[in-house]
Amino acid sequence: MIKLDFHKSLSDSDGQMNLRIKCDIRKGELVTLYGESGSGKTSTLRILAGLLNPDKGVITVENTSWVDTKKRDYLSPQKRNIGYVFQDYALFPNMTVKQNLEFAAHKGQNKRVISDLIELMELGDLNSRKPQTLSGGQQQRVALARALVHKPKILLLDEPLAALDYKIRLKLQDYISRIHKEYSLTTLLVSHDPGEIMKLSDRVIVLEKGKIIKQGMPDEIFTNKKISGKFKFIGEVLKIESHDVIHIVSVLIQNNVVKVIADKSEVQTLNIGDKVMVASKAFNPILYKIE
Amino acid sequence: MMNWDPLFITLKLAVVTTAILLVISIPIAYWLVNTKSRSKPFMETLISMPLVLPPTVLGFYFLLAFSPGNAFGNWINEWLGLKLVFSFGGLVLASIIYSLPFMVHPIQSGLSMLPHSLTEASQVMGKSKWTTLLKVLLPNCKTSILTGIVLAFAHTVGEFGVVLMIGGSIPGKTKVASIAIYDEVEAMNYGAANFYASVLFIITFCILLTVYLINGGYLKRFWK
Question: How many domains does chain B have?
Fold first, then answer.
């Protein structure tokens, strides 16, 4: 169990912001921090990792104190045993893929874990390559594998998939979900993409200007109500056309455009660019096999 | 028969100075990049002073400070057994201070160009600052370190005022090539002056050329 309860005053482009986080994260949970840029998501991860110290408050992990500002007690990042995947991956350019993983190992640690991770993340062919010769998706896989070499209990992912294109993102989501289970991690993810969040996370914490404004299951957060739909997807509104009495809303779901008929009252609340969920429950969807 | 001594002394001075500079400049540069201390601008100014100060000013104060005629110089002389005026040891110390900015500045800018996430990634893996510096940061600013080494070396080879003031011009001991050239010209001995001058010219040219070849990646392409 991770208990976070702290204040930190941060300065950003709009001036001063007060980051106030109070929440618990259960062991084995995959929790996503969601919110606009500048809402304090990355700072929260950095504070948990010890790369930034809060002004006031406590952080307790499994009943051991990591931060207690009253006692001026700050556990160094080296001792927190955290896996952190940075937004820019932070792979060491002077080392090959394998050396990057080996560097992350503790002294005298069994090297089995490295070969296991290379296998799990399918990095075998890239072993002797330098990071700058890899594609974004490959670099991401190396960064993910490297973050796990020293067997952390907590994995922090700072918008790990934001810079990747759609297909690779889907594949990496599978990797993340696989390692989360396989290594029984407690994972904290920063993400902008509701589709990704629905797919991966157990719980979402929504931040706005440094405060937690909502938290709950992804379904509740993104649709405001529980939908027990048989079939549901998250998409983005591309176009709203009106045809006499009905309206046709074009929604981009993953990389397909879907047209959905909506009535006037529904359309009034929608704007182009809004995230929406397309769900159906009265009828069975029909499956066609694609060759 | 040409006297090779001044060239050897120059070379020895440059090698010793560069080696010591490399060792002390890395921690200084690392400190300057990472410190939040208010004394940083003062330290930066002190380190950069030799860039703008006439070498004779530095030489003059060295001479005053280390002269056995005053308390401090006398203390060093008696307690540490070091005679820093008109000796090779004094030349090395003066050269180190005089060439310090040429080593510190490239390394400092090299370190500050590296993304901060590299340090942080290494930290969260449980690596100490020292391991991070040695295994991650320094290997990734090799070209800056090479530039620092070459600039410090070349600058030491080329110095004149400081070595003249603090070293005197004792043949076989502190008479470096740049001073020898001056002496030979004074003595209307143009042949010898030309010999020293051309050797320095060629050495300096070769060193700088090597750096540009390495940093420009020309050698790598050639080998491929």
Answer: 1
